[in-house]
Design brief:
About 30% of the residues lie in helices and about 15% in strands. By secondary structure, the chain is an alpha/beta fold. About 45% of the residues are buried. The model has no long low-confidence stretch (mean pLDDT about 95). The chain binds 2-amino-2-deoxy-6-O-phosphono-alpha-D-glucopyranose. Pfam families: Glucosamine_iso.
């Protein structure tokens, strides 16, 4: 796991966008994994800026999103599919239907989850997956206790996650759906490169467990310790509880400039 402690969200945006730009330069048909939430926004904003300047195109790429609330109407502004369209997809040049997400309004939920897994596999798997992390160490919506071998499925959201996300639902925790569909931990682990972004002191404990704690379903992001290519982009506040922070800083400073994340 490569831990990179950067100055602020703007620098995270630049380093994160470099990984996408390099990949799409080498492989325009790359398969991307997109995440909703505030953490990836600086990366998306930087990619949009580069796209507008002609520096990167998504026209041949495909993408899969991580998760979706169950039961929100298609036009609900907080439906994750609408959020990712607004935050990123509609601001660049993806082809129509190039971006897919789990179908939270499917009548047959288990069949929709199986189909989603099959679609990712058929596309050849995800080349680069961007991720945020929850304050309790969840990734996508894999809450504590999730099977480390899980695949796309329906999950019940924890009270904490519903409280964390109530800010998007007029601060009304009861308006936050109780269930979601989410890629499983094994689905995420199959991505060839995982890039996790975290900012702010609220994420410091989860980040410490993820990078330096014991691998456990209680902190689902710890499964990433078993992944061969993970890049973690942090601001100093999110890195605030890392025991090896000085070592991570030295490693990044000593990295040859030609070598990307
Ligand atoms: N399902 C999403 C996660 O994918 C996201 O990582 C997390 C943190 O969100 P934020 O980046 O806004 O802190 O929130 C939600 O629970």
């Amino acid at each position: 796991m490569e831990i990179v402690i950067l100055e602020d969200a703007a620098e995270i945006g630049r380093v994160g966008a470099d990984a996408f730009t390099d990949l799409l330069g080498r492989r325009p048909q790359a398969v991307l994994g997109l995440a909703t939430g505030s953490s990836p926004l600086s990366v998306y904003d930087e990619l949009v800026r580069r796209h507008e300047q002609g520096g990167v195109s998504f026209a041949q790429a495909r993408a899969f999103t991580l998760d979706e609330y169950v039961g929100l109407p298609k036009d609900h502004p907080e439906r994750y599919r609408n959020v990712i369209d607004r935050d990123f997809v509609d601001r660049v040049d993806f082809a129509p239907d190039a971006v897919r997400g789990p179908d939270g309004s499917a009548e047959d939920i288990p069949a929709a989850c199986e189909e989603y897994e099959a679609a990712i596999a058929e596309a050849g798997g995800v080349d680069l997956q961007i991720l945020g992390i929850g304050t309790d160490g969840h990734i996508a919506f894999n809450e504590p206790g999730s099977s480390l071998a899980s695949r796309t499925r329906i999950k019940t959201l924890t009270r904490q996650t519903r409280i964390d996300n109530a800010r998007f639902f007029g601060d009304d925790v009861d308006a936050v759906p109780t269930h979601c569909l989410t890629q499983g931990l094994a689905t995420i682990m199959a991505a060839r490169h995982v890039m996790l972004v975290a900012t702010g002191s609220g994420k410091a404990e989860a980040v410490h467990h993820m990078a330096e704690g014991a691998v456990s379903a209680m902190w689902p992001a710890t499964i990433l310790q078993h992944h061969p290519h993970v890049t973690v982009l942090l601001d100093p506040a999110a890195a605030g509880r890392l025991q090896l922070a000085n070592y991570y800083r030295q490693t990044w400073e000593a990295k040859p400039s030609w070598q990307g994340v």
